[in-house]
TrEMBL record:
<protein>
    <submittedName>
        <fullName>Exodeoxyribonuclease III</fullName>
        <ecNumber>3.1.11.2</ecNumber>
    </submittedName>
</protein>
<dbReference type="Pfam" id="PF03372">
    <property type="entry name" value="Exo_endo_phos"/>
</dbReference>
<dbReference type="GO" id="GO:0008311">
    <property type="term" value="F:double-stranded DNA 3'-5' DNA exonuclease activity"/>
</dbReference>
<dbReference type="InterPro" id="IPR004808">
    <property type="entry name" value="AP_endonuc_1"/>
</dbReference>
<dbReference type="InterPro" id="IPR005135">
    <property type="entry name" value="Endo/exonuclease/phosphatase"/>
</dbReference>
<dbReference type="InterPro" id="IPR020847">
    <property type="entry name" value="AP_endonuclease_F1_BS"/>
</dbReference>
<keyword id="KW-0460">Magnesium</keyword>
<keyword id="KW-0479">Metal-binding</keyword>
<comment type="similarity">
    <text>Belongs to the DNA repair enzymes AP/ExoA family.</text>
</comment>
<keyword id="KW-0378">Hydrolase</keyword>
<feature type="domain" description="Endonuclease/exonuclease/phosphatase">
    <location>
        <begin position="4"/>
        <end position="251"/>
    </location>
</feature>
<dbReference type="InterPro" id="IPR037493">
    <property type="entry name" value="ExoIII-like"/>
</dbReference>
<dbReference type="InterPro" id="IPR036691">
    <property type="entry name" value="Endo/exonu/phosph_ase_sf"/>
</dbReference>
Amino acid sequence: MQIATWNVNSVKARLTNVTDWLREASPDVVCLQEIKTVDADFPRDAIEDLGYNVETHGQKTYNGVALLSKFPIEETVRGLPGGEDDDQARYIECVISHDSGPVRVASIYLPNGNPAPGPKYDYKLAWMRRLKRHAAELLAYEERLILAGDYNIIPRDSDVHDPAVWAGDALILPQSRAAFREILNLGFTDAFLQADGKGHQYTFWDYQRGAWQKDHGIRIDHLLLSPQAADTLKSVEICKPVRGKEKASDHVPVVGTFDF
DNA sequence: ATGGTCGCGTAGCGA
């Protein structure tokens, strides 16, 4: 089983890139972020034609997440629980049925939080507290659980080309890292670190300042695994060549391969 | 020191 996450930065502007990659890589489950469209305008047919079931939680202009699965989707939760006054579409969770049993997968688009300090940073931290609360509830099921997405968090200094350039940014501030660690320390494993702990690879290169050409990237797209999922992880691939394609997203897919 | 780039939607915001 291969489970991927990819911030596509508009699924409509990126449709050719997305369908090309789905055909090439053929992952079983894909978590998309920043689809930037309402559900009714999601290019559902083009993706269903490639053999995927599709669940979306869209929004006009900004944000929006989706989950694609070659296996049946049993149940779907739209929106991160505990945010009745939160109108930003940043979370969708599905239970996927597999011969070996169910796996619960969430597609997460964690708030960017810049500029920090400020209301956007407060929103980021509050959202992370809500995610922690919900993640703790899901972990209690003691099932295979994968929280995958654009976390907008640079976990280690080795996950950025130059930490000094990013000092003060909401993606690297100590408070942001601490909030991310609190979630991890509930009992999750960062799939990339388990599979490739000494490595440093990036998942995002800004469109500006020639970041891609200079390899000035950051690692902010993560797969967080429950113990039951981590036990079956075989490898993680960060699909760097995708960033070099025509009309590329600023993020590349991250794919976890599991032994079930 | 400043500006550089995308996408959305058609001005300016978000990243």
